[in-house]
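Deliverable D5.2: sample structural annotation.
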Amino acid sequence: MRVVAILVSAILFYLIPDAVLETIFSTGFTACRNISQYIFNAVSNLIK
């Protein structure tokens, strides 16, 4: 799961311009973590 997050981050860093990234990164990083955690929990519940 962590590998997927790293790959997605790398792709986003590559695609999104630096200026846009800097504004998104500070506010969006925690949101992305929360979303990732939510998805991870949902998948874990499905597997159980």
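Annotation notes: The helical segments are 2-15, 18-47. DSSP finds two helices and no strands in the chain.
The annotation will be released with the project's public dataset once the embargo ends.
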